[in-house]
TrEMBL record:
Protein's recorded name: TonB-dependent receptor
Protein family: Belongs to the TonB-dependent receptor family.
Signal peptide residues on this chain, from the entry's feature table: 1-31
Organism: Colwellia demingiae
Gene Ontology cellular-component annotations: cell outer membrane
Length: 824
């Protein structure tokens, strides 16, 4: 008997899997009398191959068919639409500081607390170097069979990073034939043109199945000022320059600055990128009881962001200035102290906009062996290697040191208010291209043993060893602090971890099952961490089941958190002293090599109910508590506390003065953070006749971080924590060849506070439609409209871009898409 055949076991009861109409729902399972044979399969969140796919933990499944019909072209776009996503993440509309990466943030608990797997094995961190999360751009959509989202803590099964949940990308395997697909999209404003093509081929080779695929995609740019809702930017850094807060009057004198600079004309609302991916898988039986599987993936990303020309902020020594300029400014402050410096600020439009470019190469190879023993138990061994290499640059950067020297030498030119020649800036060494490089590496060895005995008791044990490293080397000018951009030092480090785990599924009765798991991880950086999980399912009737799971978890500090070089970040903040002219204020970010792991506790409890034929529902309560969280203090909150005078320690915490001197404001990573969040997930699916309907809802009861409550709030730094988010999906099979799909994404309004003024965003609903037509058995065409009514994003005065929060609201607008595939 071969291994593939042996995996199909005769069991006492079989499972009917009721997936939602659109193949996007919580997985549900109910007993069915009469079936005799069912295959044991792997389910995300467990090492035990099982027959009852419904475990104690809630899982959402997104199929490749739904991805195609919805016009999704990236994994990040798919995941960001889920009601369980919240907080802040990166994507196609992240222009400032994204590095072109895309991330997922489950429960709003932080992108670093969501574990991303491919076929149950870890993905290497990827981006521009020393990253703590996976760049979802590295995963080509055309290779995806399905996406499983485990919305529960899973450290006892997978180890670190699975505090908020797990995203498992299942790739296409056992495929025979050739499929060519192409897609394209454009907004109703005529911009953001995007398109792609993919080829998938599978055939029987050397006694096994070989699948090879290639994908190319190109995302077009959109400029912020081309959207009516984007207000003109107002920056105190003006093209003609200002000295001591005054601007040249054209006659050799200076007058108070009244104008500001609009930076939206040069900044992207949608960032362009090009992706090229090559992937393959090979599965074969090398013996009757042993199977070999090999996966390989390579992705090349070339991405761009564009921002307004560099704002240069130069502190000039007054003793080096000509008296003709010095005498025009007060030489003493209000307290009678001499003023030894004058600040020169200039928007360097003479050099042109800052153009950020990234070239990243991500490789992943995995080899596994699975064997069947005489007692129907299984053993498995695997080796997985991942590597990410990156080069990024910033054109039209400004060398602050050379600019200061040039100002002293050519004062009349710099203080005239006239444009500076770009050739002159280049010859003076003022204008240059910043060059950085970085990378990540991961190597994992794993071995396990699992099975189900004659009493239907499932079990699994295993060992793993993993090595992680990362580095990031900024441009030497940036490291030296000679750039007008924030200073940043190099990052480099590594660690290793060895792990043991065990898991059991115990059917106490025909209707009551207990699940338990434990794991011990030993890190080279901080030592050991033990976690456990205990869950249960109870079938009250054939159609009604209750479930619950309690678990502990942890997250080990990443390379960048342990060994990250000090760096500056211009965060959107409100200065309560009103000393700062711009909302972007520099904060020095520092790391700590002595960080300890975060610790978490989670609990979920819910019910799965098949109300009647075609109608089913699930409802789950969830709660996560994190202690010793690795985080930075809320700088805005500390500033406010310092300003109030009620908490002098707040001033010291972020290194500012009670008088509002923010020049050396610092945010250090520590283990003092705490996060508590809870909520309710509710899913309803219904199928009748040609219609299939699914409603997926998350209600956020609480989100508290470091003593501050964020549920129902929004701002530019934390992102959005809407208390109610819901997706409605309606699918209609008009004929065997025509399918219509309608989706609606609801975001409840939130509250915010900007510069002491409270504001409220309205409820938002995005409507999307598509139609799929099977021209014949081999050829399908799908077309649709995203954001059908061109709903504009809500105004967020302290937003991080475009006066809103782009990862929460759609800043692109109505978009038309079409895709087609042909199989032969």
């Amino acid at each position: 008997m071969s291994l593939r055949t042996a995996r199909k076991n005769i069991v006492n009861r079989a499972v009917m899997i009721a997936l939602a109409a659109t193949s996007v729902t919580s997985v549900q399972a109910f007993a069915e009398e009469g079936a005799e044979e069912v295959e044991r399969i792997a389910v995300t969140g467990s090492r035990i191959n099982r027959t009852d796919i419904e475990s104690a933990s809630p899982i959402t499944v997104i199929s490749s068919d739904f991805i195609t019909k919805s016009g999704f072209t990236s994994v990040q776009e798919i995941l960001s639409m889920q009601p369980a996503a919240a907080g802040m993440s990166l994507g196609s509309t992240s222009n400032n500081g994204s590095g072109g990466s895309a991330t997922v943030n489950l429960r709003g608990m932080g992108v670093q607390r969501t574990l991303v797997l491919m076929n149950g094995r870890r993905m290497v961190a990827s981006g521009t170097g020393a990253d703590s999360s996976v760049d979802l751009n590295t995963i080509p959509v055309s290779m995806i069979q399905s996406i499983e989202i485990l919305k529960d803590g899973a450290s006892a099964v997978y180890g670190s990073d699975a505090i908020a949940g797990v995203v498992n990308i299942i790739t296409k395997k056992d495929y025979v034939g050739t499929e060519i697909s192409a897609d394209g999209s454009i907004t109703d404003k005529g911009d953001g043109e995007s398109g792609g093509i993919s080829i998938l081929h599978g055939s029987e080779v050397a006694g096994g199945n070989l699948v090879v695929g290639v994908q190319y995609s190109n995302r077009g740019e959109i400029i912020q000022s081309d959207r009516d809702f984007v207000p003109p930017g107002e920056s105190s850094f003006v093209p003609g320059g200002s000295l001591g807060g005054m601007v040249p009057d054209g006659s050799g004198g200076f007058v108070p600055r009244e104008e500001s600079y609009d930076y939206t004309d040069d900044s992207y609302a949608q960032t362009p990128n090009e992706l090229f991916s090559l992937f393959s898988s090979f599965n074969t039986e090398i013996a009757d009881d042993t199977e070999l599987n090999v996966d390989f993936m390579y992705t090349r990303r070339e991405s761009n962001q564009q921002m307004a020309p560099q704002p240069a902020d130069i502190e000039l020594d007054r003793s080096k200035l000509d008296d003709g300029y010095n005498d025009k400014f007060d030489k003493f402050d209000k307290d009678g102290n001499p003023v030894d410096t004058l600040t020169y600020k200039r928007r360097m439009t003479d050099a042109g906009p800052r153009i950020y470019e990234q070239e990243t190469d991500t490789y992943r190879a995995s080899v596994g062996l699975t064997g069947l023993l005489s007692n129907d138990s299984q053993w498995d061994m695997s080796a997985t290697y991942g590597r990410n290499d990156s080069k990024d640059s910033v054109a039209n950067s400004i060398h602050a040191g050379n600019m200061e020297k040039s100002i002293y030498q050519y004062q009349d030119d710099w203080f005239s208010g006239d444009p500076m020649n770009s050739d002159f800036l280049a010859s003076e060494g003022i204008m240059y291209t910043e060059q950085n490089e970085g990378g990540n590496e991961q190597f994992t060895l794993a071995a396990g043993y699992s099975g189900v005995n004659d009493y239907d008791i499932g079990y699994a044990v295993g060992v793993e060893t993993r090595y992680e490293s990362g580095y990031y080397t900024p441009d030497l000018i940036t490291q030296a602090g000679e750039s007008t951009a924030a200073q940043q030092f190099a990052t480099e480090g590594n660690y290793s971890v060895q792990s043991l785990y065990g898991e059991i599924s115990l059917p106490v009765t025909d209707s009551f099952t207990i699940e338990a798991a434990t794991r011990y991880d030993n890190y080279s950086t901080f030592g050991g961490a033990a976690t456990w999980k205990l869950g249960a399912t109870y079938s009250i009737t054939d159609s009604l089941m209750v479930r619950a799971v309690a678990a502990t978890g942890f997250r080990a500090p990443s390379v960048s958190e342990l060994y990250g070089g000090d760096s500056g970040s211009f965060d959107y903040l409100t200065d309560p002293w009103k000393n700062e002219e711009d909302p972007q204020i520099k904060v020095n970010y520092t790391s700590d090599a002595d960080l300890k792991p975060e610790e978490s506790e989670s609990f979920t409890a819910g019910v799965v109910w098949e109300v009647t034929k075609g109608l089913s529902t699930t409802m789950d309560y969830w709660k996560f508590d994190i202690t010793n969280a690795i985080s930075r203090v809320n700088v805005q909150n500390e500033m406010n506390q310092c300003f109030s005078g009620n908490n002098p320690a707040a001033c010291e915490t972020i290194n500012i003065t009670p008088e509002g001197d923010l020049s050396d404001m610092t945010s250090t990573l520590t283990n003092i953070g705490q996060q508590n969040t809870s909520g309710i997930d509710w899913n309803v699916s219904y199928a009748a006749g040609i219609f299939k309907v699914m409603l997926d809802t998350t209600y956020l009861l609480e989100f508290e971080e470091d003593g501050v409550s964020y549920e129902g709030t929004i701002d530019g730094n934390m992102g959005g924590y809407s208390q109610l988010k819901s997706n409605l999906t309606v699918s209609a099979d008009l004929t065997e060849d025509i399918n219509l799909l309608y989706t609606a994404n609801y975001i409840q309004g939130m509250e915010g506070n900007a510069w002491g003024d409270e504001y409220t965003t309205d409820d938002v609903i995005y409507h999307n439609i598509s139609a799929a037509y099977h021209i014949n058995d081999d050829w399908q065409v799908t077309g649709g409209i995203k954001n059908l009514f061109d709903t504009e994003p809500e105004e967020v005065p302290d937003g991080n871009d475009m006066n809103t929060v782009p990862n929460i609201y759609d800043v692109i607008g109505r978009t038309f898409f079409v895709n087609t595939s042909y199989k032969f």
